Each structure stands twice: as C-alpha cells, then as structure tokens.
Amino acid sequence: MRTRAAVVGLSLSMALLTGCGGDDGTESAAGDGKATGKPAASGPAYRGAALPGYAQKAAWSLSTDNPELGVLDLGGVLLFAKDASGAYLTDASVDGEPDDVNRVLFASDEAEKLTLEFRDAKTGALTRTLGVTAQSVEGVTWKDGAPAIAVGTSATKESDGLTQEETTTSATLYSVEGTKLGETSGYEFGHIVSGYAVSAADGAVTLTPIGGGTTRTVPCNGDDDAECDFDAETGIAGGDRTHAPVIAGGYYPGFEAAGKYDYDPSDVTLNDLATGKQIWSSAKAAIPEGVVLDDEGQPKSRTIEVVEVTDGKALVAWQKDLGLSPTAQVYAWYDLASGALTASYEGGELVVYSADGELAALDKSEFDAGFDGTAVWRTADGTRLWAQEEGENALDPIRFSGNGKVLYGSTDDGDLAVDVTTRKVLAKDLTAVPDVNTPTGYGYLATEDGFFVFAPA
User: Fold this and answer.
1) Is there a contact between 385 and 421 (Cβ–Cβ < 8 Å)?
2) pLDDT digits 0-9 by tens, 148-161
3) Termini Cα distance of the chain
4) pTM
C-alpha cells in the first residue's frame, strides 16, 4: 500500500491556466510544451531486492530520494509534477480517495504554479510538459473510460457585508497527450467519470456530460423513501442492497426497490448511456446455481452487485446467502445482447484482480465462510488454481504482477511473492510491492534511491 502525505478536508476543482513547457533537467522540452519524445536519460540503477514477475534491471529510472514521489498512472503514460523550484512533488491524498489507488497527484488550499510531465510508461520518454496554475491535479476518465486529468482551482467572492462569502470550484480536463478536453464547474474530487460530472443529492444521482449532451438520471425506484447514492471513493452507485459502477462500458445503472423500508426484491439494471434504454435487469436474469433460494424460488439475499461491464458482458456478484459482509458470492457472467447467463462460480466478496482481469485472488476475511487464507481462480469460468488450507500462514493478497504470473501478498511474517501456477514462494520479507501499469504490464516503485520502472519478466 502506498504511503502518502495527507492533505485533508479539500473539496476543490480546478480551472486551469496554461503555460509553457519546462525543462526536466535531463531532457529539453520544446517551447510549445511538446517534448522530444526521446527515451529518458540514464537514471540511477536499481539495487533493491529482486521483484518476481519483473525484469531484474529497471527499464528506466528517475533521480529522486523521495520514496513517496507523486505519480499518476494514466494508462500508457505516467504523470509527474514539479513545483516552481523544479522539485518533484510528493503524492497527495484527500478525503474520499481510496487507500490503495493513487488518484490525486496534487492538492493544496492555495493555487501553485506547476509543471506537469507526461512520460511514456515503457521508455520514460518525456512526451509532453504542461505549465499550470492549480490547486489540485486528479486522475479521471474521459469518454469511453479513457484516462485523463482534471486540473482545478477555486475562486472566492468576498462578502459585501450582507451577502455571504461564496467559493466556486471548476476544472479543466486534459488528455494523456496534454490536449484540452473540456471544462466543468462545481468540481469535486472523484466526481468525473467517463467525461460525465456525477452529482448525488436528495437521494438522486445525475450524470451530466461535460461539453454538452444528454443528462442521465440514475433510475431509483421503490417506496416513498427510495434513495440512491454515489460513492466517489469507489465510483460505485447504489440503491440500498444493490450496487454497480456509476458508468462502465457505456452503461449506467438503475436500482429497483431502493428504499430502506421497501421489502420488494431489490434489483439492479444496466442502461445504455447513449440512448437511456434499459438493456439488462437482475429481475429478469437467470439466477446462478449456488445462490440460496427462499420458498418462492427467489434469492434469500437480494444483495447484488455489478462488478464489471466489458465487451458486451457483465460480471455480476450475487450474495450466496444471508449473512454478515464480507461473505460468499456467486459470480455470474451475462451476455448483454441476449441476456443469457454464460458462466458462474463461487468466490469471496473481497477480491484482488490481475491487470488483465483474467485472474482473481480472495482477500482473507474472518467472516468469509470460515476461510482463513487465499484462493486463486480464473474469472472466466471460476477454475480454481489453488487454495490455502488450514494451518498455513494466511496470505492477504496485495496485487498481481503485471504479467499475472506472480501474486504479491502479506502474512503475519511480512510481504512475499508467490508463483500463481505452482504456489511456490518466490521471495519473502519484501520491502516494497510494485504498482502495475495495466496496459503495459510494467511495474513501478519509488525508493530513497530513485523512481524505477520494470518490464514484465
């Protein structure tokens, strides 16, 4: 897990002031903000412990003595920020940001001049620099989930003696190429998803496209107390017992029987973001084998979560039976065109996925069906590769290596790396676990000796 300097209590957004590109100290950037695109100049050599799943020699590195160096993963691009003195910034965190996902690169009560460096994840080439004046820099997503950044600021209108002081926030969005995508007002951390500004108020969740288009309201039906909400930390929308990503794969959710006192079966729907048409509903879906049913043939637990929507398919987790959370789930794949249930299997609720989504590992939990350890399985059909047994040191998964061949995790005795296929321990007493750049499979970490990026082994 990353350790970052905390900047709390911020609910800002930023309007960006563009400037000229800067010099990173190792490469010259063109005056228009475009960089040379040459591979990164030679940095320090990695002298730490071997990292299973990755090459022994770093593909590229940067000189820094900051183990908390700020970096945003933007797909095939890694983003860094320098202050006015030319020093790389430490990662910032804000209230509502996940502990295990780096989403906020910079956050401050006061606007500062920064130079943003866009570097190719594989080579370290400086592909673009961008000068900005900002109070925050956050990783977000643009249309179709493409990585982007929101650079924000706030403005305060002072009281004239009668009116109250008023602070407004705004953000300008940029692509990984550093080109401007659009602007939005009323910006809050975690509330820009797939190019939509997400708002949640009075039990309603609204999706407003940045730059124009049709606004969508998440359907939220039930009795008079029906309420739906949005968790900016996870990007998940919910209606009492049902949950789904607020936008995924071109779809947004809807929630039936979303009231706290509504005893009708809770259901979740998926709706086409372009047309607003409902495409899929758990009410009409085949219930996967293994879900415990009541006397009327309905699931005893109507806790249902859409986990993923990709390539016209939805992975849906049905809670197996009533019980404390986390508890056992039945995962089911549905084809959205036909609605057909194509595969299902049992698994845990707290799961770590490989970068390509093909493998999953169970996060240990004292409540999870008495299971005290880890199992690894294939998400396509639930084929289990291995599972720990009673008496072993319980492994708490952290993440897979970029190539999916190694599982990093922690035990009471420290962090270690395990071969995914054989379960052989490849390394133990590790001091660091690399983050993963999903599109490339490259791993990266910062130490007191520098910032290092490794190709998959």
Assistant:
1) yes
2) 999 999 988 887 88
3) 22
4) 0.86
